[in-house]
Amino acid sequence: MNISQIISYWGYPNEEYKVVTEDGFILGVNRIPHGKIKTNDFALQPVVFLQHGLLASAASWISNLPNNSLAFILADAGYDVWLGNSRGNTFSREHLYLPTDSKEFWAFSFDEMAKYDLPASINFIIKKTGQEQIYYVGHSQGTLIAFIAFSNFPMLAQRIKTFFALAPVFYVEHARGPTKIFLNVPSILYKIIFADQEVLPQTILNRVVGTKLCNHHIIDVICGKINFAVFGFDPQSINMSRIDVYLSQNPAGTSLQNILHVLQAYHYTNILRAYDYGSLAQNMKHYNQPIPPQYSVKNLQVRTAVWFGLKDNLADPEDVKTLLLQIPNLTYLKVLPSYNHLDFIFGHRAPWTIYYEIIDIMKNTP
Q: Residue 222 and residue 319: Cα distance in Å, rounded?
């Protein structure tokens, strides 16, 4: 099922939109305007925008049962919930004039997601709902592009009431475990393997494997460990009966350039730069300087609440701690000792350790 079908399957109202970015990409955006029961036809419901992580999609927020999925929990709590999809994933594979099989289509990284995708999506939501400010929840790459966008575009930042960062990624120098292995693979090898510029899209094969092979109570553990090893996998922390759902939706694809950008970030020390095109001429063409510009969160004025895990391979605690020292308006912080990178979206304890706290913070935000 696609996003709309999943939402409707559980009995929630669903709206689907196409948002066009300034550079011509067409993003799939879904809306759950209210819970199963609409309590007030007149009052404007507060708006929450959810943005997924690397190689994922909006399905991240609705893959569990309704009482364990953040999007449904927020809708039932009285919020107008919007689900974003970054360019190049399963639900954002269109462009006004570039064909999907062209190199030009895949010439993007999280730079463009921050510069074009977030502003387009947020401005669309503001216009559609008529509300001046919204709440933003990001996971993994969804936090990375928010840190960049909200730090560099003050007008956009003013649209955000509170930024909720789950497993925040900005520095990745201390990535560990299987994640570190993949980040140490030479970039030339990635270029050979993914010569068509697209990385790990959702295919009929992974949907069939997820729904037909990995729905067995023994095989599902093996499937989970194989597919989620890079980001961390703990069978005790997630609902194993949902493995087939997770695998039928993930991975959802991204560009080779985006993966190479993450590799570049790994090799920096407490520095995050825009994508390095590998030559002084190309960097001068794109940035008017030989070295890509450095990103910083020192200008981030949005109220920021952070949750991070001590067993996270990608958002390593050392890197997160470095980031935390630089966030000017950190209003809430919670450390989750047993959490890995995927527990924030799939973990069965997430509602009690994270989601209800988010709602409590939103209800107490002036």
A: 30
- Burial tier of 322 (Cβ tally within 10 Å: 0-12, 13-18, 19+): middle
Report d(CA 223, CA 211) in Å as an integer. Answer: 11
The two three-digit tokens of residue 1, written as one number: 């099922």
Q: Say which residue the tokens 């988010």 belong to.
A: 358
Which of these is catalytic: 80, 316, 341, 343? 341
- Per annotation, catalytic residue among 92, 140, 237, 255: 140
34 carries an active-site annotation: no
pLDDT at 245: 86
- Taken as a whole, the chain contains a residue count of 366
Residue 31's SS3 state is: strand
Q: Is 183 exposed, middle or buried (0-12, 13-18, 19+ CB in 10 A)?
A: buried
35-50: b or e for each residue (b if 16 or more CB lie within 10 Å)? beeeeeeeeebbbbbb
Q: What one-character DSSP code corresponds to residue 364?
A: T
pTM value is 0.95
Q: Tokens representing 14?
A: 């669903």
Q: Are 169 and 310 in contact (CB under 8 A)?
A: no
Assess contact for 348 and 314: CB atoms under 8 A.
no
Task: Check residue 37 and give its pLDDT.
Answer: 82
Q: For the CA atoms of 277, 256, 22, 323, what is the dihedral angle to 10 degrees?
A: -80
SS3 40: coil
Instruction: For residue 222, give every residue at least 6 positions away whose Cβ sits within 8 Å of its Cβ, in sequence order, or none.
Output: none
* From 111, 244, 312, 319, active-site residue: 312
Give dist(CA 142, CA 311) in Å, integer.
Answer: 19
Is-catalytic flag, 139? Answer: no
| Residue 343 among the catalytic residues | no
Q: Which two tokens stand for residue 246?
A: 């997770």
106 with 197: CB under 8 angstroms?
yes
pLDDT < 50 positions in the chain = 210
With a CB cutoff of 8 Å and minimum separation 6, the contacts of 247 are 206, 209, 210, 214, 223, 224, 227
DSSP 87-127: TTSTT--EESS--TTSTTTT---HHHIIIIIHHHHHHHHHH
Q: What is the pLDDT of residue 44?
A: 81
Query: For residue 326, which of 308, 305, 299, 303 has the smallest C-alpha distance?
Result: 299
